[in-house]
């Protein structure tokens, strides 16, 4: 591709080791083990900045969203000082306060014994427990979780050692700015429970090698064979893929009257830029919309995916705006993907699983595993890379 805004960062160093050897998958324990899961909760999800939502989902004071992480849950609330995350449980006896994925409330009422919190997380009444006379309400508000917003994405961190968020985001801002991420509007969000390890979902959404076998609609519109991997600075990974020339939108119809986003350069009008903020937030940046999808682990063998469909406000404001064809494509593709992930998880659950060779089109799979392994298994060496069977069928065509 030429004229891409991202040419500079898409130039690939073909001398780097992956091009000589490819990569290998990892072990049964890495994908399915309880101990690996515990380490990931402690060292990845417990320590890093984690992308959780988009600002457009909190349009008014009192707008909220929830998500479950491992055995915990957080509540994001748009209060008087902006969006703030809290642990989603009542300070009285631990009742999980909000189960709904999103909505709007000015007070959070615990329906166990009726403690009531305001939209800033403050405990404002103790109805029913008659504790007011000897109890300091100001010490018993919801417990806040560190919260930051960058490029319209809300991030949380459970640790004071989470590091510098801007440094972790590296070159992500270049994509976010070109696609106006901060101003986009979320037309819809949908949750999907998946019975597989979260890393298998992260792998799946980051490679297009399976498009011809799994997604006939996507394969018709995008070319899995005209694709490549970016080398990006920061805790991010990415790849690009070409949209076939007779189409202009990645949707069920392949066509859209939506104007391309104003800052997208000509070389990216027929391209999807797949960018993942590690560990778990995938973006598919296209000229007429952005898909955003996170995966949150709940146990070694279960996770939830939340898919967000984001459009430019100049399009969502039009009376005839419809995201139906885009939603239909991804909703179908998502179910196709979860079946692949769940069945892969069932295969890998065999303790006799022995890791196989990854192709050059699966470099991001290897990068994700390596990043997680670096944080959870310091001191252990990377899996042996042999290069056997690598045919060079893929990345870096331009
Ligand atoms: S657990 Fe919430 S009021 Fe008792
Ligand atoms: Fe897929």
Automatic annotation (TrEMBL):
<keyword id="KW-0479">Metal-binding</keyword>
<dbReference type="InterPro" id="IPR036922">
    <property type="entry name" value="Rieske_2Fe-2S_sf"/>
</dbReference>
<dbReference type="InterPro" id="IPR015879">
    <property type="entry name" value="Ring_hydroxy_dOase_asu_C_dom"/>
</dbReference>
<keyword id="KW-0411">Iron-sulfur</keyword>
<dbReference type="Pfam" id="PF00355">
    <property type="entry name" value="Rieske"/>
</dbReference>
<keyword id="KW-0408">Iron</keyword>
<dbReference type="Pfam" id="PF00848">
    <property type="entry name" value="Ring_hydroxyl_A"/>
</dbReference>
<feature type="domain" description="Rieske">
    <location>
        <begin position="49"/>
        <end position="145"/>
    </location>
</feature>
<keyword id="KW-0560">Oxidoreductase</keyword>
<dbReference type="InterPro" id="IPR017941">
    <property type="entry name" value="Rieske_2Fe-2S"/>
</dbReference>
<dbReference type="InterPro" id="IPR001663">
    <property type="entry name" value="Rng_hydr_dOase-A"/>
</dbReference>
<feature type="region of interest" description="Disordered">
    <location>
        <begin position="377"/>
        <end position="398"/>
    </location>
</feature>
<keyword id="KW-0001">2Fe-2S</keyword>
<protein>
    <submittedName>
        <fullName>Rieske 2Fe-2S family protein</fullName>
    </submittedName>
</protein>
């Amino acid at each position: 591709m030429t004229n891409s805004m991202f040419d500079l960062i898409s130039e690939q160093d073909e001398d780097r080791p992956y091009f000589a050897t490819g990569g290998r998958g990892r072990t049964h324990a890495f994908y399915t083990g309880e101990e690996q899961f515990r380490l990931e909760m402690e060292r990845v999800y417990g320590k890093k900045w984690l992308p959780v939502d988009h600002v457009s989902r909190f349009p008014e004071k009192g707008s909220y969203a929830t998500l479950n992480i491992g055995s915990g849950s957080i509540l994001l609330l748009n209060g008087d000082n902006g969006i703030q995350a809290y642990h989603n449980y009542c300070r009285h006896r631990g009742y999980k306060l909000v189960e709904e994925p999103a909505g709007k409330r000015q007070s959070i009422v615990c329906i166990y014994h009726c403690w009531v919190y305001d939209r800033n997380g403050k405990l404002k009444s103790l109805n029913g427990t008659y504790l007011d006379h000897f109890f300091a309400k100001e010490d018993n508000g919801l417990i806040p979780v560190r919260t930051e917003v960058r490029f319209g994405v809300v991030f949380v961190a459970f640790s004071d050692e989470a590091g510098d968020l801007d440094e972790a985001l590296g070159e992500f801002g270049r994509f976010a700015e070109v696609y106006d991420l901060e101003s986009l509007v979320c037309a819809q969000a949908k949750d999907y429970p998946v019975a597989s390890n979260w890393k298998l979902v992260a792998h799946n959404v980051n490679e297009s090698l399976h498009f011809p076998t799994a997604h006939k609609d996507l394969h018709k519109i995008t070319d899995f064979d005209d694709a490549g991997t970016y080398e990006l600075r920061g805790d991010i990974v990415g790849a690009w893929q070409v949209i076939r020339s007779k189409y202009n939108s990645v949707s069920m119809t392949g066509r859209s009257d939506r104007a391309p986003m104003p800052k997208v350069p000509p070389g990216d009008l027929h391209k999807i830029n797949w960018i993942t903020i590690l560990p778990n937030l995938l973006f598919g940046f296209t000229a007429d919309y952005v898909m955003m999808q996170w995966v949150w682990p709940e146990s070694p063998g279960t996770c939830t995916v939340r898919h967000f469909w984001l459009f430019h406000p100049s399009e969502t404001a039009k009376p005839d705006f419809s995201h139906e064809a885009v939603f239909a494509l991804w909703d179908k593709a998502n179910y196709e993907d979860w079946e692949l992930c769940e069945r892969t998880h069932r295969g890998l659950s065999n303790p006799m699983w022995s890791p196989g060779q990854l192709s050059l089109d699966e470099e991001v799979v290897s990068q994700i595993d390596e990043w997680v392994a670096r944080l959870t298994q310091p001191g252990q060496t990377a899996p042996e890379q042999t290069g056997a069977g690598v045919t060079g069928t893929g990345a870096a065509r331009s």
